[in-house]
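Fold this sequence, please.
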Amino acid sequence: MPRRALLVIACLCPLAVGAFVVPAARSIPRSATGARSVPVPDASGPVDTSHPSRVVGRGTAASCTSAAVVAAVRAGGIIRFSCGPNPVTIRMSATAKVMNTSPQVVLDGGGLVTLSGAARQRILYMDTCDRAQVWTTSHCQDQATPMLVVQNLAFADGDSNGQRFDGGGGGAIFARGGRLRIVNSVFTGNRCERDGPDIGGGAVRALSQYRGLPVDVVDSRFTANVCSNGGALSSIGVSWTVLNCRFLANRAIGIGANPAQSGTPGGGSGGAIYNDGDAMTLSIGGSVFVNNHANEGGGAIFFVSDDRTGTMAIEDSTLERNRNDRFHTAGLPGIYFLGARSPEISGSVVR
């Protein structure tokens, strides 16, 4: 699985924490260039949380505690917050873990809630193959539930260093199995291990999604997240649909690429996004990638389909000033791509 080479194969609206506004979907003329909002399918959008299963807090900031979040996530269902009228940050003293017996877990912060890992704690965890969260099927790597949705919520300063079960990564969110969806959320300053050839996801690490269906990431922002690979998003064998998102100043800080070069710990690819695997897709629309950085390859995006069946498409997006220190695909600044065919790029700026 080549990850580093001197000669590469030639192919080919900000959100503020505490104030979340979902852009209205609209059609974009095919002649347009650069990032413009693209339509979001209903199935990829927010969940109706008007009738919650449970509520964290009793109307005050003080009542919104780490323990209350952990208990609510463990119980599952649709979860909302009642922490008062002002933005609030909940410092997590323990990771909130999804029980695999929950059909659905929806966390809706209402645009006012930030969950903070305080630079020492992973924030949210789901793993259908973790017996500690109850193993519900004989095919834990491919099951329909739980469905985990986070929306109108911010994640800050999550840290998964040392959390190596099932490969580690995911400073804010680790999700293996079931389904994961992220809507109108903000990820800032999350991190995972500094080095390693395949570990990644300073903000989000996703593995083994049900039937290979994509992780949807919609109307969200990722800023200053850091990991060995994939400063913002990372996965092995997982497809992604990324719509109307912003990736700003995320970093892949490992050294030595994958496989790790002799004398190095490995890593350093995919400043914003790191995708590795076989038959997978990466679909990006209406998104911005600016000032992301990779020590090795793909300052914005690293995508390697080992069996060359994977595909990537970029529509109505802007990728600029995404620096990679070692390699990228010729003609695609900030991108390293190996797949079935050249990436499909339309209505976009890549420079």
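The longest helix spans residues 66-75. DSSP finds one helix and 29 strands in the chain.
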